[in-house]
C-alpha cells in the first residue's frame, strides 16, 4: 500500500462534498498514520474485499461540519448527531468509496464494498487493523475538520 | 435476514472468550434493533462481502470487560483502552467472524471478510447501514457488558 491509493478517496470526497453539499474542503498533508490519534464525532466506515486485496476505509467528521453538510444537502439543521445525520454519513461513505472503487478499478485494483457502518460519539478514534499501513488524509473547512483513513492488506 | 444468522456469531463469541480468555458471558435476548441505542467503549467492526450477500458485524465491549479479557489473555492490566487493547479487540473480531463464516458457509451462506476496524471512545454507538434489519444480541458478564450486532443486505 502506498500513498497513491489514497488519491482516489481524496478526490472522491472533495467531489462528493462539493457537488452534493456545495461544501469546499481543503486537503492537508497525507501521511502514514503511526502513533497519531485522529478524532472525530461521527464516522462512516466500510470494508473492501477484492480477489487480491482487502482493506477498510473511514471518513470522520467534526459534529459542526457534519451538521452543516446536512443543512446544505437537506435543509435541516439538527441540534446534534441524530439518525438523519448518520444516514447521511453512511450515504457519503458509500458514494466516496464507490467513486474511489471506479478509479482504482481502472488501474487494475478491483474490490467489492461491504455495507457501511456509522459510529457516533464525541472524540472517538479509529484504528484500521490491517497488515499494511494506514494512510491518513486530513482536511479543513470553514465549519470544522474531516479526515479519511485508508488501509489495504497489500 | 433473520435471527438464525446471529447464532453462529453468538456461539463463536461465547467460544472465543471462553477458550482464549477463560471468560464466561451470559447471552440475553436477541432482537431486531430499531430505535434502541446500544453503547460501548471499544468496538471491533468488520465488513463481509459474498456473491449473493453483503453486510457488517460489530462487537462492542464495556471498557471494564475489555480490560479484564486483556488481563486474562495476556496478563496485562492497562489503566485504559490503549493500542494493546484495540489490537486484542481487532483479533477477537477476526476470530468471531471467522468462526461464524465457517458455520454459515456450511449452510450455504458464503462471504469473504474485510479487515477489522476498531473504534474507541466512551459510550459510542454504532449503526449498520444495510437494507436488511440489524440483529442485536446483548451479553452480561461479571466484568461488564458486551453486545454484538449483525446486518446483512438480504
Break the fold down into its secondary structure elements and pairings.
Two copies of one chain form a homodimer.
Chain A: H1 6-21, E1 26-27, E2 31-32, E3 39-49, E4 54-61, H2 63-74, H3 83-106, E5 112-113, E6 117-128, E7 134-141, E8 144-152
Antiparallel strand pairs in A: 1-7, 2-7, 3-4, 3-5, 3-6, 4-8, 7-8
Q: Helical proportion of chain A?
A: 25-40%
CATH fold title of chain A: Chemotaxis protein chec
| Total beta strands of chain A | 8
Number of domains of chain A: 1
Radius of gyration of chain A: 14 Å
Low-confidence stretches of chain A: none
> Main interface pair?
A-B, 41 and 41 residues
**Average residue-wise pLDDT of chain A:** 94
SSE topology string of chain A: HEEEEHHEEEE
Calculate the terminal CA-CA distance of chain A, rounded to whole Å: 5 Å
CATH homology superfamily of chain A: CheC-like
Shape, per Cα inertia axes of chain A: globular
CATH class of chain A: Alpha Beta
Task: Report the β-strand fraction of chain A as a percent range.
Answer: 35-45%
Largest sheet of chain A: 8 strands, antiparallel
The CATH architecture of chain A can be given as 3-Layer(aba) Sandwich
Q: Determine the structural class of chain A based on helices, strands and strand pairing.
A: alpha+beta
SS field, number of helical segments of chain A: 3
Write down the oligomeric state: homodimer
Amino acid at each position: 500500500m502506498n500513498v497513491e491509493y489514497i488519491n482516489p478517496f481524496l478526490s472522491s470526497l472533495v467531489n462528493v462534498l462539493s457537488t452534493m453539499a456545495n461544501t469546499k474542503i481543503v486537503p492537508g498533508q497525507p501521511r502514514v498514520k503511526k502513533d497519531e490519534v485522529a478524532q472525530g464525532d461521527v464516522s462512516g466506515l466500510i470494508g473492501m474485499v477484492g480477489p487480491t486485496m482487502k482493506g477498510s476505509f473511514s471518513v470522520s467528521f467534526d459534529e459542526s461540519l457534519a451538521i452543516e453538510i446536512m443543512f446544505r444537502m437537506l435543509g435541516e439543521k439538527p441540534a446534534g448527531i441524530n439518525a438523519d445525520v448518520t444516514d447521511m454519513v453512511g450515504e457519503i461513505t458509500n458514494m466516496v468509496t464507490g467513486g474511489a472503487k471506479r478509479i482504482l478499478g481502472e488501474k487494475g485494483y478491483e474490490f467489492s464494498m461491504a455495507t457501511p457502518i456509522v459510529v457516533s460519539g464525541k472524540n472517538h478514534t479509529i484504528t484500521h487493523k490491517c497488515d499494511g499501513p494506514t494512510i491518513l488524509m486530513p482536511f479543513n473547512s470553514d465549519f470544522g475538520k474531516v479526515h479519511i483513513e485508508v488501509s489495504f492488506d497489500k
